[in-house]
């Protein structure tokens, strides 16, 4: 069995697809990034070339449609085990079946990718609302721990929205961040070495928000189950309005 | 009073307004802020409602004395009033931290309707012009305000609303003596008319700022006054049709006053009735139903045990089964258990092959309900069984608590 390896980036993955088509060979397994190299199997390492990746992207968009490509990209960013191989199979199917492949939801290969992609898209949308910034010395800083690798999917939204600011969105689980400055954002390795202290002014604004949060609830309609359905506890850690709620349960 | 104290009082005064939507406005963008077409929820309060906008009153110091309202003049509650700058700055600080999607700007009537409107216009002007705020603003039109002020606010807001609150003139006269049907419908008609005019104007290629680009909405209280569901639903249908409203919100009345004309304080808000009205409203807006199909003068109230679409289906056995492989979109939409999204998926998926029961499940159809109403390749589902049993099968399970906390309801 041959396991193909790449650097873990989407561009690296696109180059792997190119390599597989050049060799007319299909990988039986795909491993990205710093994962342990399986020494029981034959490995096929592949190289990442940004220029090549761009042309593969154009070619795939033209033949598979933007929709299929985007769906594959979203699934690629998911936390689903075996996601690389799943996206590979989906693209391979769409290469022969054409853009219509996106609609073949009865096909396992399509549905797997479709569902993983939807989960990522849902998580992205959730965080567009649930991300919380704190002002720290002139920079807006937002830590979060998404399941999917969604930094590149949320950064554009905040670049449009907070265009006049400097901000950092920190994926603490993956130790990287989207950093926005002078009108552009980039993704880089990042860590803070622990929680950051808040200024008195920042505390005041948080208190205003917390007061608003509790005042706006209609007590006769209390419904903690419904609240958790939309805003599961795993998100509470970084929400100022829930920072005192942890002990209560 | 400090901002913190005002915020508590003025959020308290605004929270019975259920609208918090930030949708319908695309492409607005300022130095701070942008809008998102589908809207974004930022948090969910302890009652499970989405928090999208900072929903506060500019002031709760009301000269009106509407019997059903927490802020009525005769109520013994602390009073507070923001300054326009204070409220604008608060909005910006919360917005930059991504706590909110924008501002829901409402107010009690301070002085006169026009005096109040001037303060709202000032607040919105500071936001849009000084801060160059591009986020969402939902502004209330104060009943009885003059057209020029409505016009000014409409150029600054994404959405506007005038609350009808009471579904008939009689109830209005009894419970809100300073308001009249006219003082509510006139601003609504003005906003609706100006939106239309602006759209035509922009379609003809002329430019100019958008007027209330996300449309207008309103709110009706349920259970404060004796109107039946048929009256309410017909009113909603009329509002959608004649003023082009985007949404009618329904709010189960929560007793806040001792008044012989209103339900007693201990009365539980009719949550399930509110939920059924929302479902019926959905049928009007997205499923091609008319109010007269859902209810009739002979049967003027919704059955709280059944969702209204299932209710309709049980009354029309001749319409079923619907063959999902052949029927039109409109017909498929009438099947209980099939929503807008699954109906669209069925149309796409059936181009590939004939659909069977398994496929339907995978496409998101709720088979528990739909199986009695559809025909497909296989299996053969039970033919439409006779009345009583099916009705029992499809009724919502009995609820342990009267306030129906388990209700999974999004509003």
Helix content of chain B: 25-40%
Q: What is the approximate shape of chain B?
A: globular
End-to-end CA span of chain B: 33 Å
- What number is the mean pLDDT of chain B? 89
Q: How many helices of chain A in DSSP terms? A: 8
Would you report the number of β strands of chain A?
A: 8
Which of globular, elongated, flat, extended, rod-shaped describes the shape of chain A?
elongated
Class of secondary structure makeup of chain B: alpha/beta
| Major sheet: arrangement of strands of chain A | 4-5-6-7-8
Q: What amount of the residues of chain B lies in strands?
A: 5-15%
**Interface with most residues:** A-B, 51 and 59 residues
Number of helical regions of chain B: 15
Beta-strand residue percentage of chain A:
15-25%
Between the first and last Cα atoms of chain A, what is the distance in angstroms? 50 Å
Question: What's the oligomerization state?
Answer: heterodimer
* Residues in helices of chain A, as a percent range: 40-55%
Which labels suit this protein?
heterodimer, A: about 250 residues, alpha/beta, 5-stranded mixed beta sheet, 3-stranded parallel beta sheet, 8 helices, about 45% helix, about 15% strand, elongated, B: about 400 residues, 6-stranded parallel beta sheet, two-stranded antiparallel ribbon, 15 helices, 10 strands, globular, disordered C terminus
Give a description of the structure:
The complex is a heterodimer of chains A (249) and B (411). Chain A is of the alpha/beta class and 249 residues long. Helix content of chain A is 45%, strand content 16%. Chain A has 8 helices and 8 strands. A 5-stranded mixed sheet of chain A has the order 4-5-6-7-8, covered by helices on one side. Chain A has a 3-stranded parallel sheet with strand order 2-1-3, covered by helices on one side. In chain A, helix 5 packs parallel to helix 6. The longest helix of chain A is centred in the middle third of the chain and has 23 residues, at 108-130. Chain A is elongated, with a radius of gyration of 21 Å. The model of chain A has no long low-confidence stretch (mean pLDDT 90). By secondary structure, chain B is α/β, with parallel strands linked by helices. In chain B, 38% of the residues lie in helices and 9% in strands. Chain B has 15 helices and 10 strands. In chain B, the strands form 3 sheets. Chain B has a 6-stranded parallel sheet with strand order 3-4-5-6-7-8. A two-stranded antiparallel ribbon of chain B has the order 1-2. A two-stranded parallel sheet of chain B has the order 9-10. In chain B, strand 7 (216-222), helix 7 and strand 8 form a beta-alpha-beta unit. In chain B, helix 2 (84-96) crosses helix 3, helix 4 packs across helix 6 and helix 7 (229-243) packs parallel to helix 8 (271-286). The longest helix of chain B is centred in the middle third of the chain and has 23 residues, at 181-203. Chain B is globular and about 70 Å long. The two termini of chain B are 33 Å apart. In chain B, 49% of the residues are buried. Mean pLDDT of chain B is 89; it is low at 398-411. At the A-B interface, helix 5, helix 6, helix 7 and helix 8 of A face helix 1, strand 1, strand 2, strand 3 and helix 2 of B.
């Amino acid at each position: 069995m041959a396991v193909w390896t790449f650097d873990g980036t989407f561009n690296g993955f696109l180059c792997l697809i190119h390599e597989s088509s050049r060799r007319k060979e299909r990988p039986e397994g795909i491993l990205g990034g710093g994962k342990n190299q399986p020494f029981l199997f034959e490995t096929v390492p592949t190289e990442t070339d940004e220029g090549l990746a761009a042309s593969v992207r154009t070619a795939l968009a033209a033949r598979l449609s933007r929709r299929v490509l985007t769906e594959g990209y979203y699934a690629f960013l998911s936390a689903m085990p075996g996601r690389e191989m799943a996206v590979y199979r989906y693209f391979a199917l769409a290469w022969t079946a054409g853009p219509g492949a996106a609609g073949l939801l009865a096909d396992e290969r399509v549905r797997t990718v479709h569902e993983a992609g939807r989960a990522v898209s849902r998580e992205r949308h959730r965080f567009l609302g649930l991300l919380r910034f704190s002002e720290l010395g002139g920079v807006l800083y937002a830590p979060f721990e998404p399941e999917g690798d969604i930094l590149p999917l949320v950064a554009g939204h905040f670049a449009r929205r907070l265009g006049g600011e400097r901000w950092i969105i920190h994926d603490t689980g993956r130790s990287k961040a989207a950093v926005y400055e002078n009108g552009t954002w980039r993704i880089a390795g990042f860590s803070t070495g622990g929680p950051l202290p808040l200024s008195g002014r920042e505390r005041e604004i948080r208190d205003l928000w917390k007061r608003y949060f509790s005042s706006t609830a209609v007590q006769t309609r209390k419904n903690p189950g419904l609240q958790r359905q939309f805003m599961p506890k795993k998100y509470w850690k970084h929400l100022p309005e829930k920072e005192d709620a942890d002990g209560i349960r | 009073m400090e901002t913190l104290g005002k915020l508590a009082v003025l959020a308290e005064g605004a929270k019975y307004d259920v609208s918090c939507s930030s949708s319908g406005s695309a492409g607005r963008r300022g130095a701070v802020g942008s809008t998102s077409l589908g809207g974004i929820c930022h948090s969910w309060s302890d009652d499970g409602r989405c928090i999208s906008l900072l929903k506060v009153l500019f002031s709760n110091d009301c000269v009106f004395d509407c019997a059903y309202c927490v802020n009525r003049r005769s109520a013994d509650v602390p009073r507070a009033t923001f300054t326009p700058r204070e409220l604008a700055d608060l909005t910006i600080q919360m917005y930059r931290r991504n706590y909110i999607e924008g501002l829901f700007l409402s107010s009690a009537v301070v002085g006169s309707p026009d005096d109040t409107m001037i303060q709202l216009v000032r607040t919105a002007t500071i936001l849009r012009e000084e801060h160059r705020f591009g986020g969402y603003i939902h502004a209330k039109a104060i009943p009885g305000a003059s057209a020029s002020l409505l016009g000014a606010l409409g150029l600054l807001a994404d959405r506007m609303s005038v609350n009808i609150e009471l579904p008939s003139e009689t109830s209005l006269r009894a419970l809100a003596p300073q308001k009249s049907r006219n003082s509510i419908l006139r601003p609504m008609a003005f906003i609706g008319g100006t939106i239309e005019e602006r759209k035509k104007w922009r379609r003809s290629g002329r430019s100019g700022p958008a007027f209330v680009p996300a449309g207008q909405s309103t709110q009706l209280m349920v259970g404060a006054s004796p109107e039946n569901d048929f009256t309410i639903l017909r009113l909603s249908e009329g509002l959608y049709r004649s003023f082009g409203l985007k949404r009618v919100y329904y709010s189960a009345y929560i007793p806040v006053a001792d008044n012989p004309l209103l339900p007693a304080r201990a009365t539980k808000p009719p949550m399930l009735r509110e939920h059924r009205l929302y479902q019926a409203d959905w049928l009007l807006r997205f499923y091609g139903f008319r109010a007269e199909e859902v209810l009739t003068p002979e049967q003027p109230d919704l059955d709280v045990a059944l969702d209204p679409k299932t209710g309709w289906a049980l009354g029309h056995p001749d319409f079923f089964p619907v063959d999902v492989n052949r029927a039109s979109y409109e017909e498929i939409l009438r099947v209980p258990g099939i929503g807008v999204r699954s109906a669209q998926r069925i149309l796409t998926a059936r181009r590939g092959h004939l659909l069977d029961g398994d496929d339907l499940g995978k496409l998101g159809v709720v088979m528990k309900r739909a199986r009695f109403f559809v025909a497909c390749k296989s299996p053969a589902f039970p033919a439409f069984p006779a009345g009583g049993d099916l009705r029992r099968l499809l009724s919502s399970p009995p609820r342990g608590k009267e306030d129906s906390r388990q209700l999974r309801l999004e509003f």
